[in-house]
Structures are given as structure tokens and as C-alpha cells.
Amino acid sequence: MLKFRIIPCLDVDAGRVVKGINFLSLRDAGDPVEQAKAYSDEGADEITFLDITATHQRRRPMIDVISKTAEKCFVPLTVGGGVKNIMDIKEFLLAGADKVSINSAAIKNPSLINESSKKFGNQCIVVAIDAKKISKNWNVFINGGRVDTGIDAISWAKNIEKRGAGEILLTSMDRDGTKNGFDLELTSTISSAVNIPVIASGGVGCLKDFFDGIKLGGASAVLAASVFHFKELTIKQVKKYLKSKNINVRIDNLDKYYEK
Amino acid sequence: MKNVLIIDYGTGNLKSVHNAIKRISEKQDCKILVSSSVEDLKKSTHIILPGVGAFESCLNGLIKTKVRGCLEEMVLGKKKPFLGICVGMQMLATKGFENGEFAGLDWISGEVKKINNQNNNLKIPHMGWNSLNFLKETAFTKRLLKKMKKKSTNDLSAYFVHSYNFKNKNTNEKVITTCYGEEITAMISKENIIGTQFHPEKSHYFGLAFLKTFLEQD
């Protein structure tokens, strides 16, 4: 049976993790390479990197970070932030990313989804949707949540599926950073509207939130940043909890036997 | 000395396969090449055919590199250890049905068909970690389990991402399966040829142990 994925997210700024200041056990608290490795060794099913202040000048440190991370972490790596065109996607993939997440550029130029999924395969094109409730509907926001596009999130989700996206990274702007749990109504609405996997993001505060995102939200994967960064929860803990609630997660109890 | 060749035919995330092989062969005398040259293919001791993308474009990419003839000589003739990953395994089939009907390399009898989405009840692609069901014991699986210090194959899972399923004709060539609405072929094996639908290079400790077992094949 397919397992539900637990995905820690690293918010990277100019090649450094900006939230992970409490990672005392690491040689360098702000080094995303070390953090990604620690997460994958702990059982993360995938790792996501978001370049939160992506500008052209900062692209170089990000490329270095991706290639260094890819050398050390043997679970799928998704990279996003500031992706504008096919060349950006190619650059990330060549550096060792397995999937690339696009957001604003997909809204501004939806054919980018068609072109990139055709060129690189739909499995590696993730479209991120930042959604916020405006009266009765959820609108899609871009530019890091600063601009309301006025586009309905549900019809946008269906649109990107048709264009060939392999996955949707769905963030509730209303819940992001609140620790009040995922927006379950939003997650389940989008998840049942499309036939591609939906990753729930934004709002995780406790163990039960992970369970709800999967069980009530219908998400294929759950993503969290700060609860892992600040060591409020560990990936192991989350998986053990979910397993006790009969949610199918990967716990293989393997050690680094390949070294022997 | 080992000489691992990762075939570069203009597609696939070659870097992650390269990184994984590099990681497990650190303390060994092992050379890793990413190439599509006939000369390198002849010198190689182990051959890996990765694959990401559509069946036809991967196959066309391989044919364009002009290594097909030499590859068949090395694998089918000289019996060098060979591993096909994802579409790299699917290409070994008789026929593929992604965006039309195309002839494959036909090293292993079977057809590659779209996963049935069970009336839209299944998300496609089949993406993520899925449990492995070992159908039989082979010399390879025996060594793999020993390497992982596992007595049973329970709890083992690997990372999949694909929309098509290799339905092979001879059930005795099917070693591992997984389940996603239907039975999915996860690993096939025929003499010196191994194919995996999952990505060992992205399957963490299990995947690294798998690749290491492959490298130890002679």
C-alpha cells in the first residue's frame, strides 16, 4: 500500500536556512545541507527547499546548496522559489533536484506548466498554490502572498492538472504560521477536485494536525517547517503517532548497512 | 576494479544515480562514468540505464546515441551486469503504450501499460513510498537481505514515481511487486539483467543497499 509522505520544508535565504536556529546538534545550524541530511536520516520521505527571497543574484548560492544536498540525501528533493522559465527548471534539475515547484510564474504564464511537464516529465513539475479565503471562495495569491490574482483556487487546481502538473503543493495562507492546523476544508476540496497528489501545507502545530490533514483533508503528503526546525516534533515521533492511528507510513528500521 | 557506466542519452536525472553510486563506492576502487560512447560501454563492468520521461522519447534518445547495438552486445552477448531504472526498465519490454504504440528493446517479454485509475479513485502518477512484496528468493535478494541484516522482507518500501506498469509475460522473471490499485511490477530479473520500477537512488538506505548489491554482481 502506498504510504503517506511526511515532508520537512527548509526555508532558505541566500543559501542559508532561516528558521533552523535551534538545530544545536548540527555543526552549522544554518547549513541546509546538514539539515536535509539529518531529516532524511531521521526518516523524512522527501525534502523540500524553498528559496524564500529568490532574486537573480541569490540564485547561485541556491544552486550550490542543491548540488551539495543532492550528494548527501538519498530521498527525493523538491526545490522552489523564484522559478521563472524553462531554463530555471533545467538549472535546478541539473543541480540534482528531483522536482521543481513553480508558483507565480505558472499564473503569469500557464503554458510553462505544459512545456515543462512535456520536456521533463510531469512527475517533476509541482505547482504551488498559495490560497486565501476571500468571502466564500479561496483565491490564489502570488509573489510570496502579496498579490491577489482573483483566480479561484479550485478552478486553478483543475487547470494545472490538465496542463500536466504532477503534484500540487497547497498552502493555506490563513493558517500558515498559526499552528492551528491545516485548513481541512480547503485541502479536502482541492484534493477531491483533482486526480493528482496534493501536499497539504501551512498551519501544523501538533501531532493530530498531521493525522487530520491526511484523514480529513485527503492529502497524499503533509509538509511542515517550523515544528521540525524548532524540534517541537521529530519526524520519527510523527510517524510513530500516525502508525498508531493506523495511517500507513514508512518506518523501515534500516540502518546504514550499505556502508558495510 | 569496477567500471560503472551510467548511460547518458539526454534524459533522466543522471546526477542522483551518479551521487548514489559515488556514495556506496567511496571506499572501493570504482570508476563511475556518465557517457554514451561505445568505447566507454566496452570498458565498463556494470551498466546502468536510468530513465525519466516518456517511453518513446527515452527510446528515441537511446537510439540517437547509436549505442543500442553495442549495448545489446555487452548485455545480451557478454552478459555484463545491467540495471534499468524506471523508464530504463520499461524500455526493456516488447512494447510500450505511452502516447501510442512503440516497440521496445524486447529483452524481457511484456508490455508497458497505463495504470488503471479505478474510475478516478486513484491519483496518477503513483508517487511516493510503497511496500515491497518479494515474490521469490533469488541470489540477488538473498544478498540484499543479508546486507541489510534483515531476516524478513516485511516493512521494506521503496520510492516510486510513474504512471505506467511493466506487465511482463513470464511470471518467473518477476521478483518484487507492489500494489497500487493493481499489481505493479517493481523488480524484474533475467540472468544478468535487473530492472526496477522504483528509484533505488531515491530510496534511502534500502535503495543504497540495493545498488551496492548490484555493484557486487560479477
Written description of the protein model:
The complex is a heterodimer of chains A (260) and B (218). Chain A is an alpha/beta fold and 260 residues long. Chain A has helices at residues 32-42, 59-72, 86-95, 104-108, 111-120, 153-162, 184-193, 207-215, 226-229, 235-244; strands at residues 5-13, 16-17, 47-51, 77-80, 99-102, 125-134, 137-142, 147-152, 167-172, 198-201, 221-224. An eight-stranded parallel β-barrel of chain A has the order 1-3-4-5-6-9-10-11, surrounded by eight helices. In chain A, strand 1 (5-13) and strand 2 form a beta hairpin. Chain B has seven helices and 14 strands. In chain B, helix 1 (14-24) crosses helix 7 and helix 6 (139-147) packs across helix 7. The chains are: A alpha/beta (260), B alpha/beta (218). The A-B interface holds A 1-5, 40, 45, 67, 70-72, 74-76, 93-96, 98, 120-124, 166-167, 195-197, 220-221, 250-258, 260 and B 13, 15-16, 19-20, 22-24, 52-54, 117, 120, 122-131, 147-150, 155-157, 159, 161-163, 179-180, 199, 201-209, 211-212.
**What is the number of E strands of chain B?**
14
Strand content of chain B: 25-35%
Number of strands of chain A: 11
Helical fraction of chain B equals: 25-40%
> Count of helices of chain A?
10
Name the overall outline of chain A. Answer: globular
If you compute it from the alpha carbons, what radius of gyration of chain A comes out, rounded to the nearest whole angstrom? 17 Å
Uncertain runs of chain B are: none
* Count of DSSP H/I helices of chain B: 7
Look at the helices and sheets of chain A and give the structural class: alpha/beta
Strand order of the largest sheet of chain A: 1-3-4-5-6-9-10-11
Largest sheet of chain B: 8 strands, mixed
Quote the distance from N terminus to C terminus of chain A: 30 Å
Pick out its properties:
heterodimer, A: 260 residues, alpha/beta, B: 218 residues, 4-stranded mixed sheet, 7 helices
